[in-house]
Structures are given as structure tokens and as C-alpha cells.
């Protein structure tokens, strides 16, 4: 997918749930708003999302100078067991810190942490000890512009691990939304786009009961995209949920990971 700091594909984010100034999601109360009273962000209208890339670009532009926390999750329920793949990115421009945490569902947890001077990368593969890469920000080109635009990346891979798509574009292109609703909550207007189809043919295997919801506010910030569907092959059935959500606010904090000490020690041993 894409080159990163240390020739490793990056993780990216985009999308989904929060307001500037303070983290959102504090209340579930909402009041319906007539669509004719809504100022639709560029790329959208009362009928649906007409230009997906414009919506994604506007979302990116909004996040460029904000502190944010973005989460991407794939949950697969096979009845007898459930697997979850999750990635969380926290970015604080004031402290110049960025952290990416990932759970791959196999017990491994690759990660990235960036502070004012240094980039730390944790490569975690099943059956082996963690490998840490420690480099100065300047050496790997992780400048302030790169920090601000981190959310524009759209993939993350971990060496031989399978690539995990994490882009709003990838989610949007699977759906043509057919229903629109607007509501007001916490002083802000949200537009909710919905789609449902009993049998959906986009997937290479049979997909049934496909439902998607995308929530965007009047500023163009994508708060959430959620896909739910069922995959069937032979006598096996898997219920899947793919979701992006984002929180934006001045109180987003980036915690120092507990593996930094080990990363320093390992890097000294290689020098």
C-alpha cells in the first residue's frame, strides 16, 4: 500500500464521531431537523452522498489542524467465537505526540509512538519477540506537516502481516446511500445516511442483511461509518461489523506507551 517512516506501510485513519472543542458522545438525546433546514456539506445532499472523494477530502482538511482520536474496528462473529481487529490513533498537535495502537486478533499488538524528537515503532509478530525501531523524527522525515496529515494515510501493514484497509474511501465506495435523516444534538446538526439491502452483491461471497450508516455534520466531519452484514459460504455463517469513529477535541491526550523503555534498551544493543 504505501511507504512509511521505515519502509513499512502506514496506518491511516479517517472517520467517524466527535466535535471540535470537547469530545462528543456525551448524550443520546437528539431532535429531528427538517432536511430543507440543513446546510449540506460539499459532496452531499438530501438524497445521499454524491461525491465520495470530496467528502473524504473535506474530512481530511477538517482534521488537519485538530487533536483527534480515531478508531477502526472489524468484528467477526462466527457463533462459537468472535474475533476483533482494532486500531486506535491519538494525535495531539500541541504536544507533537502521536500514538497508534493495533490489536490484530492473534494476540499481537504492533504500535507506533512519536514524541517531539523521536519515532518509536513496535513490530509485533506471532511467535516471536517484539522488534523495536527507534529513529529521530528528522531522520525519518516525520516533520510537523507529516504529523498534521497523518490521518490522510489509508493503510497499515506490519511486514508479513496481511494489510488492513482503513480508509473512508474504501468504506464509502461499497454503498450508495438511499435514506437521509437530520437531527440536532449537543448544539450541532448531524446528517445520517442509511442503506439496507437484504442481498448485497458487492462481496465475492454471499452477503445478506447488509446495513450501513454514515454520520456527517454540517462542517463535513465524518463522525462514524458502520457496515453490518452477514457472509455465508456452505454451512458457515459470519456476522461482520466494520466501523470507523473519530473524536475531535482539545482534551485528546496521548499516553506514553509502557514499552518505550524496552525499545530504548533494544536500540542501544544494536548501536
UniProtKB/TrEMBL annotation:
Question: What InterPro entries does UniProt report for this protein, alphabetically?
Answer: DUF7537 (IPR055959)
Task: Write down the species.
Answer: Halorussus limi
Stated name of the protein: Uncharacterized protein
Superkingdom in the source lineage: Archaea
- Pfam families, per the entry: DUF7537 (PF24381)
Amino acid at each position: 500500500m504505501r511507504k512509511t517512516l521505515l519502509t513499512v506501510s502506514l496506518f491511516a485513519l479517517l472517520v467517524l464521531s466527535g466535535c471540535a472543542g470537547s469530545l462528543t458522545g456525551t448524550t443520546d438525546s437528539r431532535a429531528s431537523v427538517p432536511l430543507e433546514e440543513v446546510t449540506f456539506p460539499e459532496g452531499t445532499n438530501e438524497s445521499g452522498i454524491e461525491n465520495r472523494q470530496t467528502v473524504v477530502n473535506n474530512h481530511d482538511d477538517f482534521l488537519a489542524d485538530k487533536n483527534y482520536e480515531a478508531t477502526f474496528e472489524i468484528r467477526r462473529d462466527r457463533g462459537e467465537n468472535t474475533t476483533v481487529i482494532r486500531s486506535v490513533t491519538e494525535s495531539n498537535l500541541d504536544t507533537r505526540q502521536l500514538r497508534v495502537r493495533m490489536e490484530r486478533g492473534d494476540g499481537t499488538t504492533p504500535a507506533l509512538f512519536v514524541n517531539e524528537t523521536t519515532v518509536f515503532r513496535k513490530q509485533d509478530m506471532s511467535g516471536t519477540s517484539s522488534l523495536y525501531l527507534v529513529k529521530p523524527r528528522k531522520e525519518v522525515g516525520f516533520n510537523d506537516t507529516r504529523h498534521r496529515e497523518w490521518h490522510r494515510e489509508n493503510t497499515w501493514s506490519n511486514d508479513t502481516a496481511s494489510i488492513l484497509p482503513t480508509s473512508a474511501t474504501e468504506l464509502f465506495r461499497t454503498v450508495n446511500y438511499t435514506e437521509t435523516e437530520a437531527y440536532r444534538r449537543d448544539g450541532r446538526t448531524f446528517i445520517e445516511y442509511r442503506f439496507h439491502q437484504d442481498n448485497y452483491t458487492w462481496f465475492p461471497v454471499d452477503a445478506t442483511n447488509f446495513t450501513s450508516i454514515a454520520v456527517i455534520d454540517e462542517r463535513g466531519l465524518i463522525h462514524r461509518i458502520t457496515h453490518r452484514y452477514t457472509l455465508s459460504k456452505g454451512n458457515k455463517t459470519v456476522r461482520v461489523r466494520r466501523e470507523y469513529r473519530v473524536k475531535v477535541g482539545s482534551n485528546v491526550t496521548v499516553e506514553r506507551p509502557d514499552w518505550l523503555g524496552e525499545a530504548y534498551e533494544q536500540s542501544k544493543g544494536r548501536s
